[in-house]
Write a structure and sequence with these properties.
This protein is 81% helix and 0% strand. The protein has helices at 2-26, 30-38, 43-61, 67-92, 99-121, 127-131. The chain is globular, with a radius of gyration of 16 Å.
Length: 132
């Protein structure tokens, strides 16, 4: 059980750092703006994407949020990583950069599956499990 908790918190912590902290610190930079424009997205999309990444990362890291909201956050990040990989592929072609979002998706899936394993053992307290 301890190993499962370590896997969950390590993978979820990485997602929180890469999708919550980093966008909060670097999402407003010129490099981020140029990156989103290079992929063909409008500039305002960067602001919206960063807001939802930060909110999703907070939702995943804090146990108090309901399971249903966490499921939406996991789904949102899944779409984000898949579409990021596809956007890079369609604009820049096949290269190493195409795999970076997919690697992050793998970490997200580790977090997701370990989260559900922990819920089965009722070792994570969430809003629903506390109310029951």
């Amino acid at each position: 059980m301890k190993k499962l908790k370590i896997i969950f918190w390590s993978s979820t912590g990485l997602i929180f750092l890469f999708q919550g902290v980093m966008p909060a610190l670097t999402g407003h930079t010129e490099m981020a703006r140029q990156g989103i424009l290079h992929l063909g997205y409008p500039e305002y999309f960067l602001t919206l994407l960063n807001i939802f990444k930060i909110l999703g990362a907070i939702t995943l890291i804090l146990p108090q949020f309901p399971k249903r909201l966490k499921e939406w956050a996991y789904a949102g990040f899944t779409f984000d990583f898949i579409f990021a990989s596809l956007s890079i592929f369609f604009v820049d072609g096949f290269g190493a950069a195409v795999f970076f979002p997919l690697i992050t998706l793998t970490v997200l899936m580790i977090s997701y599956f370990s989260y559900h394993q922990l819920l089965k053992t009722r070792k994570i307290k969430t809003y629903e499990t506390q109310a029951v």
